Amino acid sequence: MIEADRLSATSPAATLDPNKYLNRIGYDGATALSVEVLCELHRRHMLSVPFENLDILLGRRIACDQSAFVEKIVERRRGGFCYELNGAFA
Predict the structure, then answer these.
(1) Left (φ > 0), alpha (ψ -120 to 50) or beta: where does 62 sit?
(2) What is the CATH number of the domain that holds 52?
(3) Using CB atoms within 10 A of its CB, is residue 34 exposed (0-12), middle (13-18) or buried (19+)?
(4) How many structural domains comprise the chain?
(5) Of 10, 22, 23, 88, which residue is least crowded by CB atoms under 10 Å?
(6) How far is it, in rounded angstroms, from Cα 79 to Cα 71?
(7) Range of the domain at 17
């Protein structure tokens, strides 16, 4: 698990519960800062969070900020389009 104090309070990710994100992508491995962990997180993200553009097709407004991406993908357990997928992973 990741300790919340490792996130900067000024970072947009400061509102993210990292453990909810890890649960969303089905990751329960090491959280050490390493290339191997980053590669596994990226792989899990790609396998767990599908590309989808339903909001675009339905004419819904899309907020392009990291907190909106995290809310949609982590809290509502939806997929997203390119900006949302990459923004949530960042």
Answers:
(1) beta
(2) 3.30.2140.10
(3) exposed
(4) 1
(5) 10
(6) 11
(7) 4-89
Distance CA 85, CA 66 (A): 10
Q: For residue 17, how many C-alpha atoms fall within 13 Å in the half-sphere facing its CB? A: 8
Q: What's 75's DSSP letter?
A: I
**10-residue stretch averages of pLDDT, the chain, 90 residues long:** 48 73 96 96 96 93 90 94 86
Q: What is the pTM of this model?
A: 0.76
66, 12 Cβ separation under 8 angstroms: yes
Spatial separation of the C-alpha atoms in residues 1 and 78, rounded to whole Å: 23
